[in-house]
Each structure stands twice: as C-alpha cells, then as structure tokens.
Amino acid sequence: MTLYFASTTAPVNIATLKYWGKRDKDLNLPTNSSISVTLAQDDLRTLTSVCTGPELTDDKLVLNGKEESLASERTQNCLKDLRQLRKELENSDAKLPKFSEWKLTIVSENNFPTAAGLASSAAGFAALVVAIAKLYQLPQSLSEISKIARKGSGSACRSLFGGYVAWEMGNETDGSDSKAVEVAPMAHWPDMKAAILVVSASKKDTPSTSGMQLTVKTSDLFKERVRDVVPRRFEEMKKSIREKNWPLFAELTMKDSNSFHATCLDTFPPIFYMNDTSKKIIKLCHQINAFYNETVVAYTFDAGPNAVLYYLKENEHKLFAFIYRTFNKVSGWETKFSSDELAQFIKHFDT
Ligand code: ADP
Ligand code: DP6
Ligand code: CO
C-alpha cells in the first residue's frame, strides 16, 4: 500500500482578551476580536499525524486512542478547504500525486486534559490543519492557513503563531479577513511567564461552542461587551504588549476574564465555568497584589475552572510563596494537593 505521511505538534493558546460569540456559526466568524498568548512548553501540546493514499477507503480521526466521528461539519469544512488548495496545486503541476482525491487518516493525541477549558480545541484543530497543510505541501502563509483552522475551532487560528497573537474579527461576510496575526513574538517579552493551576481535568458540562451561542442569544450584558468593552480593550492590550506595560496588560487580562465569566452568568440559563476553587484563586491573586502593593500576578480563566496565571520572572518567588502556602504544596513541579477540591498540580510554562 502506498501511503504519504506528515506530523506536527501545535501548542495551546490562552486568551487574554476572550473570544466568546459567533456572528456566523458555519464560518466560525466571531463577534469580537481577541488576543492570546501561546504557551510554548511541551506540557500542553497536541501531536497529530496524518496520512493519505489511493487505497484508503474513508476519512478517519483517532483522538486520544479512540475513533471519533469525522462527520462534524467543522472538521469536514477544514478538510474541504485543504483539499481545494491542494487541488489548485495539482492543477498547476500534473506530476503531483492526487492527494486531493484520496481519503485521510488522522491520529491525534493531546498530552493534557481534553475539553476541560485548557484550549484543547485550539491546539487540536491547529495541529490537524497544519499537519494536512504540510502533507499537501501548501504554499499559503500561516495567516491564510489560520482561516481554515478557525473553521475547526475559532481559538485554533491563534495557535498557528507563537508569542502574542491577535485574531482580527474582520468585516467580510465570507470570512476572508477573519484571521490570526502576530502582535509580538515570544522573544519580545522574555520575562513573561505563565503557570497553569489545574483545578479539574474533567470534561466541562457546556462545550464552548454551545455555551457561546446561548450567551449571544440571551445575554444583555454580552451586547455591551461586544459593542464597547472589547473593541477598546483590543487596542489597549496590543499597545500594552508592544510597550511591555505589565501593570496594564495584567489589569486588562484580569478584567476581561471577569467580564467574559460575567456574560456567562448573565446567560439564561446561566453557565458556570468557574468553581469555588477558581474563585479562591482570584481572591488570592488580588491579595498577593495588595500585599506587595504592586502587580505580581494576573489570572485568566477560559471556559472551565482551571486558572492560568501570568507573571514576570523576577516575581516568581513572591507569587509561589503564597500559592504553595495556600494550596499546601507537597513536592516538585507536579504537585499533589490535599483535597480534591484544590488544584491537582501546578506547572510552570515559559510563554
Ligand atoms: P477546550 O476548552 O478544551 O477547547 P472545547 O469545548 O472548546 O474545549 O472543545 C473540545 C473539543 O475539541 C473536543 O470534544 C474535540 O471535539 C475537539 N478536539 C480536542 N482536541 C482535539 C484534537 N487533538 N484533534 C481534533 N479535535 C480535537
Ligand atoms: C473561552 O474556540 O473553543 O477559550 O470556536 O466554538 O470551537 P469554538 O470555540 P472555542 O472557544 C474558546 C473560548 C475561550 C476564549 C478564547 O479562547 O478566546
Ligand atoms: Co475550545
């Protein structure tokens, strides 16, 4: 059997200005622009391998060792776009094998909890699309390919870039200008670090896709967020990154996390992504900043209870002195806590 292979890994990205709301569900066009930091460490990644060949009979996706349905429209949309771009290449060079006509087998592993609010859909669809683009030897830019990843999962478009990334919502109805762009590379702000506090690795009750659709439909607060709050913050946050203005970046990050979770609470029926431990972490972060009378730490929570903390390297000891005392550290980076209710482990990530 003749088979052609490609593999790639993709990192997660954690939004500091949240995407929450679609203006077009099929094309995955957002109601607002967003910003994220890509976490470059090996601890939170998707590894995806793809293969194609004339003898394969079906498209197949194996996720974390289990065959998943490939019927989902969003995955099909990604495959359709990728095949179309490959077809254009084949049309321009008759010697190329006809990958665009063959089925694909996709095997993917996340080395962190799936669907727990740690951006598995971001790393997952970024890896899927980039692996196939690599297999197909597509010449398009990362921003162009990000539009295809966006159709898989909105947040995935940002995982194609390292460092600080913006997803520009765009104005067009066909999505041709809704893409990810780099705000600054990782090396721009080498002192920035992130730590993840895994409060729960369980699958969330409300997936991001359905959660945000209910918010758009039912929340009045959401309208204000999209009309006024986020557009203002989008410009301020990009500026804070370019100027390495840590106190401003930190404040905007915390406020935007709170604003996003407030719209979840304003959704009807309400959606609760944060739990009591999450709230304890928020309180602790504000206590730490008040204690030192400076911004030591910024928190953000995606659609799940797990915390991502941003801080500057020089303040690491100040932050973890409090974290370890509060959460009763036992040993090492992989730290077990005494109660199920508390974070299961802390890991450090260079951003
Ligand atoms: P999360 O907060 O982890 O991003 P979502 O609700 O947004 O959670 O998305 C979870 C879904 O993303 C999974 O149920 C699965 O369909 C998809 N997904 C996660 N990882 C991958 C992967 N590696 N490859 C393809 N799809 C993935
Ligand atoms: C809270 O990108 O997972 O993490 O586009 O429906 O797949 P779909 O949603 P998804 O939503 C992410 C929501 C968020 C904020 C963010 O990443 O910007
Ligand atoms: Co997601």
From TrEMBL:
Domain Diphosphomevalonate decarboxylase-like N-terminal: 10-179
Catalyzed reactions: (R)-5-diphosphomevalonate + ATP = isopentenyl diphosphate + ADP + phosphate + CO2
Enzyme Commission code: 4.1.1.33
UniProt KW keywords: ATP-binding, Lipid biosynthesis, Lipid metabolism, Lyase, Nucleotide-binding, Steroid biosynthesis, Steroid metabolism, Sterol biosynthesis, Sterol metabolism
Superkingdom classification of source: Eukaryota
Record-level GO cellular component terms: cytosol
Family: Belongs to the diphosphomevalonate decarboxylase family.
A Pfam family it matches: MVD-like_N
Major enzyme class: lyase
Protein name: Diphosphomevalonate decarboxylase
Residues of the Mvd1 C-terminal domain: 195-351
Keyword Lipid biosynthesis: yes
Signal peptide: none
InterPro entries (UniProt xref): GHMP_kinase_C_sf, Mev_decarb, Mev_diP_decarb, MVD-like_N, Mvd1_C, Ribosomal_Su5_D2-typ_SF, Ribsml_uS5_D2-typ_fold_subgr
This protein's pathway: Isoprenoid biosynthesis; isopentenyl diphosphate biosynthesis via mevalonate pathway; isopentenyl diphosphate from (R)-mevalonate: step 3/3
Keyword Cytoplasm listed: no
GO biological process: ergosterol biosynthetic process; isopentenyl diphosphate biosynthetic process, mevalonate pathway
